[in-house]
Amino acid sequence: MTRTSLDVTGRDCLSFTVSGPWAHFRRLDTTTEKLTYRVIPRTTAAGLVAAVLGEPRDSYYDTFAPEVSAMAITPLSSLETMPIPQLTLPTEEGDIQTADGVSGKTVVDPGTIATERKRRTFEYIVDPAYRIDLVLDDDAVFERVAEQLLAGRATYTPYLGKSECLATIDDVERTTVTDTDATSVHSTVPEEHVVPGAGKQLRIERTPAYMKADETGRRTTGFVSYAYSGGDETLTVSDAPTKEVEDRTVCFI
Amino acid sequence: MSDTTDTVENRSEIVFLYDAEDTNPNGNPLSANDKPRIDESTGKAVVTDVRLKRYLRDQLDDDGHEIYIKNPSKADYEGAIDRDDLFKAVTGLEEDDIEDYTGAEAADAFLNNAVDVRYFGATASFSSEFQSALGDGFPGQFIGPVQFSHARSLNTVVQKSESKQLSTVVSSGGDSEQGTFATDNRLQYALVPFHGIVNEVGAESTGLTEADVSRLDTLLWRALKNQTLTRSKMGHHPQLYLRVEYSTDEYHIGRLDDGLAMSQDTPDTELRNITDVVLDVSRLSEELDRSTEHIDTVHVKANPHLKVQTKDDTGGPDQLVTALEGAVGEGAVERIDVYDTGE
After folding, report:
1. Which of B65, B83, B126, B208 to substitute to test the interface with A, most A CBs within 10 Å?
2. Quick one: pLDDT at residue B25?
3. Residue B20: how many other CB atoms lie within 10 Å
């Protein structure tokens, strides 16, 4: 498991809340059933920040590499989900045709629609909200992010996983990371540091955390397994690298 | 060769409110008999962005525009040709000429002829041989600059307890046909707010023009009136359309639809018609007031039957316009004539 190696103590941090009516972060381990992670994956959060800056696809992964960036993610909502089945059409080679002699009247062949139209259930998180604390080693990029977010600007439209999950970014604050001995943590916590509590449901998921550009576009270079809570609940930790941001105790990943 | 170089310059945020009376706003294809989608934790109706975009595409088609994602029930499939001939069909070019065109020029030709792709994007790859003939400049995917959220009704909805039975004949493939029965599921009443963004930076990738964005001002309204005439969709009425056009680059308020609330005394479960509803727009006005310096124009259309409550008073569409003018200035509010399509 890859984790951030950036020493964040005393560093400038940008804290902001991203929320929306819906979110969908498709799990890598499912195919026809489009299940969602409950917590915005670190890679998705990086993409969100890159969208705010207007960075092109596959161009920004080095900025969010484990040795030069750190991020803490705190769920602020209960992270309940709702299934939304949808009909999807194939776009494989040979499926898309165009009506003869009619410019631009492109169709999927009716035979293909009859046999290949798939009913797929997309699972969406309802009313998600996350507090994100971001530290970047690259001061120039950090300042650009701060400038954009504090001005309420975003180059590309922010969304939570899918384009129909429009997102809002607000409560933007410049903060400083400090050390703490607290063991009651608000953010997600790397799995090995969580102390299970009697009567407490322990929710854990494993999501992509780091990416690299490659010849096919990008590939995941690191995953992280973490426990999380929803709403105002906290997690108890042992021997965790806890930090304090604002009035929250968090773990950076 | 492109006539879509004057891409839109300002960002817009859209709030579009319509109601669904004794109808099924959006059936769930995985439920028995296509039951309306309902968020079980809130009891509110859900309508997907896909449903809204189908209305819009169908209206564009009816208006005589060429669209890429055709409605299966409306498409003419006679003589459908292989997609490798798409480029030739769109541009009128012969096979030998294709390599003289760059991929970017091919993309321009495609976008000029598929207005729905300029709005909503599409996956549009050709076969590998044709792709290499076009060159690398032809993108396999166009990302749409116009995005809508799934909508969730303002009210808690009630499913009709008296559902009528339909008898129908369905084909199970080939020549076999079999009669069956289905239940007609409807909601008593749902007031559905859609929220959308027009992104001026994303517009550059699909060539979305000022004219395309202006078209939205009449398109959503007319689509909801004209494309809801089938049995299961009768009973839809557009009630309020707002397009807030921003003057500040890369800026939008976000979640403007959250500024809408219902303030009538009638409980949700007893709502049957728009005349039962009072729409509280005071939070919306406050949001706009706070962002006046970033706003160029508020384009607005409201149904005459809509009752709105502002922080000063309750009234019809004029009351709404007065509140908007109070927030952003008289000259910055423009009433839309939805039947003046200018085309």
Report:
1. B83
2. 96
3. 27
Strands (E), B199-338: 236-246, 261-262, 279-280, 295-302, 308-309, 314-315, 333-335
The B residues from 6 to 35 touching A (CB cutoff 8 Å) are 28-31
How far is B269 from chain A, CA to nearest CA, in Å?
Answer: 22
Cα–Cα distance for residue pair A44/A159, rounded to 1 Å: 10
CB contact under 8 A, B199 and A157: yes
- The whole-angstrom separation of Cα B203 and Cα B184 is 41
- Residue pair B241/B217 in contact (Cβ under 8 Å)? The answer is yes
SS3 state at B287: helix
Taking the CB of residue A231, how many other CB atoms lie within 10 A of it?
Answer: 10
| Eight-class DSSP state of B55 | H
What 3-state class would DSSP assign to B196?
A: strand
Q: How far apart (Å, rounded) are the C-alpha atoms in residues B253 and A52?
A: 14
Judged on CB neighbours under 10 Å (0-12, 13-18, 19+), B176 is exposed
The sheet with strand B151-156 has its strands ordered as B38-39, B44-47, B151-156
Look up the pTM and report it.
Answer: 0.90
Q: How far apart are CA B134 and CA B132, in angstroms?
A: 5
CA B79 – CA B82 distance, rounded (Å): 10
B262 touches chain A (CB under 8 A): no
- Best A48, A77, A98 residue to mutate vs chain B (most B CBs within 10 Å): A98
Confidence of residue A115 (pLDDT cuts 50, 70, 90): low
CB-CB contact of A114 with B100 (8 Å) = no
> Which of B214, B265, B233, B274 shows the shortest CA–CA distance to B10?
B214
* Residue of A97, A152, A153 with shortest CB distance to B81: A97
Mean pLDDT of A165-192: 96
Q: Is A98 left (phi over 0), alpha (psi -120 to 50) or beta?
A: beta
Distances from the Cα of B119 to the Cαs of B205, B206, B238, B273, in angstroms? 11, 8, 21, 32
Q: What is the pLDDT of residues B265-290, one digit of tens each?
A: 999 999 999 999 999 999 999 999 99
Which tokens go with A211? 């990416």
Q: Mean pLDDT in runs of 10 for chain B (343 residues)?
A: 70 98 91 87 94 95 84 58 55 66 79 90 70 73 94 95 62 59 87 98 94 97 94 93 98 96 95 96 97 98 97 94 96 94 78
Task: Report the residue from B114, B125, B147 with minimal CB separation from A166.
Answer: B147
User: Are A93 and B144 inside 8 Å of each other by CB?
Assistant: no
Q: In 3D, which of B237, B235, B149 has the Cα closest to residue B187?
A: B235
ipTM of the complex: 0.88
